[in-house]
Here is the input.
Amino acid sequence: METRERIVDIIKVKGPVLPVQISKEIGSNILMASAHLAELTASSRLKISTIKVGGSPLYYLAGQEEMLQKFTGNMNDKEKKAFDMLQQSKILRDAEQEPVIRVALREIKDFAVPLNVTHSDNKEIFWKWYLTPNEEAEKLITQILQILEKPVEKKMEEKIPRQEIKEQKLIEVVQKEIKLKKEPRKYKPRDKEDNFLKDIAKFFEKNKISVISSDIIKKNSEMDFIVEIPSVVGNLQYYCKARNKKRISDSDLSSAYVKGQFKKLPILVISTGDLSTKAQEALAKELNNITFKKI
Here is the structure.
């Protein structure tokens, strides 16, 4: 059976899974498993979660959304509070929430669906519990707006999938309308696209680096990893940025530095190309805590 078909069958039985689970099931490494999962997601056969377990998203089939609730233990306190409030109320009016809850609702995209509602020539955002039917949501919104007579004509649009909504800064008083990205082009896999993954796998194997989690940012171009690197004092965790490009710029290093600082981990940058002159200067001065390796 073709590998991707096997993966679909595994998820049918197990529900939402991590790349490391798939790699064990198909007898492959986590890089190739991640590549297969990415292709299945790009072709809309699988969905990918916003919630992460150990730094990795979950992959699941349409109809398995309810099973994502098993992983809410990975939320922070504010996200869990927003989750519980929305699950209980089914509908929350954005303008009525305290700022931290408004931010949290935008983070739990697996469970909170944004709805644009127009009433009395005003447009505002409501949040729907993801399993609530639109018909029920409309009735609840009508109740919240205290429309006792014939409802004013209102437009309710369920936003396009969460992964296509641009993140934006929250303005506490004036709520800007959420902007939407264009529908991404469907990914057509090419034979040569495995080469970058193979190069990374060879580098990791040669240096005895083990992968804890991986995330494909851009196919055949950019990947993020959390890895363990052996040292004289034991294995150390690193944030690793892998880039498939001829020249690594100082901005590439700065971006990796910011992500590493956010994850509170030392940083390893690996690439098929070389450092630019400015990148070499930055690495020798302000970014000297980044380790760069050419693969």
